[in-house]
Amino acid sequence: MDTIRVRLPNSRKGEQFAIAELMLGSFHIRVRSSDGVSRLGRIKGKMKRRVWIREGDIILITPWAFQDEKCDIIYRYTPPQRDWLRRNKYV
């Protein structure tokens, strides 16, 4: 069995799991975070044009401190990583 490395949320930085719900264009995505809030997510600059996010993907977000209804998308989980997260009951 191969070793799968999975990045987990850093609670000190406010990171949390979310699911991509709706693609809005211009690097914006409507996401549903693990605390039940629907937010407008913005794909960070280093992820633009390198990582493609689709509806239903599990992602890692950081909510904005000054506008709670917006967040930055900082990581997208691959299918083997999603399976590992589900097996170990993180999502």
UniProtKB/TrEMBL annotation:
<dbReference type="Pfam" id="PF01176">
    <property type="entry name" value="eIF-1a"/>
</dbReference>
<comment type="function">
    <text>Seems to be required for maximal rate of protein biosynthesis. Enhances ribosome dissociation into subunits and stabilizes the binding of the initiator Met-tRNA(I) to 40 S ribosomal subunits.</text>
</comment>
<dbReference type="GO" id="GO:0003743">
    <property type="term" value="F:translation initiation factor activity"/>
</dbReference>
<dbReference type="GO" id="GO:0003723">
    <property type="term" value="F:RNA binding"/>
</dbReference>
<dbReference type="InterPro" id="IPR001253">
    <property type="entry name" value="TIF_eIF-1A"/>
</dbReference>
<feature type="domain" description="S1-like">
    <location>
        <begin position="4"/>
        <end position="78"/>
    </location>
</feature>
<dbReference type="InterPro" id="IPR012340">
    <property type="entry name" value="NA-bd_OB-fold"/>
</dbReference>
<protein>
    <recommendedName>
        <fullName>Translation initiation factor 1A</fullName>
    </recommendedName>
</protein>
<comment type="similarity">
    <text>Belongs to the eIF-1A family.</text>
</comment>
<dbReference type="InterPro" id="IPR006196">
    <property type="entry name" value="RNA-binding_domain_S1_IF1"/>
</dbReference>
<keyword id="KW-0396">Initiation factor</keyword>
<keyword id="KW-0648">Protein biosynthesis</keyword>
